[in-house]
Amino acid sequence: MSITVGKGAGLTGDIRAFKRPEAKMKITGISSIVVNAKMRNWVFVRVDTSEPGLYGWGEATLNWKTRAVTGAVEDLAQLMIGTDPRDIEQAVRRMNKHSYYRLGIIGASAISGIEHALWDISAKELGVPVWRLLGGKVRERVDLYSHPGLGEMKTLYEDTFDPSKLVEASQKVLEKGFRAVKVVCIPYSHATTTRAACRNLERLGIALRDGLGDDAAIMVDFHGRAATVSATLEYIKALEPMGPMFVEEPVQPGDTKAMREIVERSNVPIATGERLIGLREFDELLSARACHIVQPDLNHCGGLLEAKKVATLAEVAQAGVAPHNPNGPLAAMASLHFGISTPNFVILEAMPGAVPWYDDVVEGLPGMVDGRWGVPDRPGFGIEVNEKEAAKHPFQQEVLHTQTAVLDDGTLVDW
Fold first, then answer.
1. Residue 382 region, left (φ>0) first, then alpha (ψ -120 to 50), else beta?
2. Would you please indicate which residues are annotated as catalytic (active-site) residues?
3. N or C: where does the chain have the smaller number of CB atoms within 10 Å of the terminal CB?
4. Residue 151 has pLDDT above 90, yes or no
5. pLDDT tens digit string along 261-299?
6. What is the DSSP letter of 363?
7. Which ranges of 186-226 would DSSP assign to H, the alpha helix?
């Protein structure tokens, strides 16, 4: 076959003549670093290559599963040593298929962290930001939101039921430059609720709206605390006067029929998806039109490639995408590049400043302007881990919810 290149008919030849041999590159090592950041133990994943000085960073943070995830990273590394880090789709298939047993959230988190690092490597080799490889830029900035107390568990999960404390802590989030905040103020619940609980929730919502003003976006995370659709709908109705941007995870994950019923009967936008893994689980939810906004966590869903596939499904289902990300700075950067390149992206959860040394452990993080991050322009994710600083914050057991998520009669409930 002959082809013509350029103007006129000046250059012809076999198309195969233009194919340049690709330089060989192999993965030589995969390791993890654990950094304790109060609310979470961040799990940073480093992938080294045979190219001198070329390596990539990812994140596989999973609360209360740190030791399991780092072990999974070590196990999966054995499947990856000697392979080309640029073959990302093939790498994800290898880790999933050659693991034989279905991996679940722990394995999916380990895969996600490794996969992030492969994107970082591929983009660095080409000298472009990761978002260029994900389809290019579709927006100039990404809206952010965070939580009262940032990394303080007591502020987020205990003080949240006191109107004055909730408003004060949420105002501090806006003072840090955010224009949106998400709170967890749903009562620890079971199969039913009470009039008093609903009235108190309504008062919390109204106080929060009055305290933050109409320009602030407010989201409410249910954590799936209500055990029935009826109780969930009572709580959603109580929040209507506040006008939330969305309510999140109204029931426990995996119950598509319940989610569909809630969507049909709610006057508030419904979001969910942080605990779902892989395209198949999101497909069931989105095919049923069982949410308005889907929330893949790029640390857990299988990585950037899987999240882009989920976003495409969501676009078909007329749903927005708001990545779940109460994790560390590497996960935040992966989510930023995802948001820059994803048309139906809505808003990004992020925790900059969650610890005083946030910018010391990872260098090159973007500055927030008017509650947003702009478009990164450095190769890869554009950041570097300071391993010496990271080593100053070794693993510690995270705060558990064994004392708070218990009803008066001793019944254990979802936290």
1. left
2. 223, 324
3. N
4. no
5. 999 999 999 999 999 999 999 999 999 999 999 999 999
6. E
7. 195-212
Q: Tokens 């995370």 identify what position?
A: 221
Nearest in space to 120 (alpha carbons), one of 389, 330, 395, 410: 330
**109: three-class secondary structure by DSSP:** helix
Q: Please give the Cα distance from 382 to 376 (Å, whole number).
A: 7
Report residue 403's pLDDT band, with 50, 70 and 90 as the boundaries. Answer: confident
pTM for the model stands at 0.93
What is the distance of C-alpha 373 from the center of its chain? 15
pLDDT tens sequence across 310-336: 999 999 999 999 999 999 999 999 999
Q: In sequence order, what are the residues at sequence separation of 6 or more whose Cβ sits closer than 8 angstroms to the Cβ of residue 408?
A: none
Rounded to the nearest 5°, which phi and psi values hold at 70?
Answer: -65, -35
Provide φ and ψ at 259, rounded to 5°: -60, -40
CA-nearest of 333, 338, 339 to 352 is 333
Q: How much is the pLDDT for 22?
A: 65
DSSP 127-178: TSBHHHHTT--S-SEEEEEB-TTTT-HHHHHTGGGSHHHHHHHHHHHHHTT-
Between CA 237 and CA 386 the distance in angstroms is: 47
What's the whole-number average pLDDT of the chain?
Answer: 93
**pLDDT of amino acid 21:** 52
Beta 41-49 vs 27-36: how paired, if at all?
antiparallel
In the structure encoding, which two tokens stand for residue 45, read together?
A: 């994943």
197-252 per-position pLDDT tens digit: 999 999 999 999 999 999 999 999 999 999 999 999 999 999 999 999 999 999 99
Q: Inter-axis angle of helices 163-175 and 195-212, to 10 degrees?
A: 30
**Block residue for tokens 């045979």:** 50
On the 0-12 / 13-18 / 19+ scale of CB atoms within 10 A, 26 is middle
Tokens of 308: 């882009």
Give the torsion through C-alpha atoms of 307, 99, 73, 52, to 10 deg: -90
Residue 333, C-beta contacts closer than 8 angstroms, at least 6 positions apart = 365, 376, 381, 382, 383
Q: How many CA atoms lie within 13 A of 327 on its CB side?
A: 31
Residue 296 · residue 271 · CB < 8 Å? no
Q: Which structure tokens are listed for 260? A: 């569909």
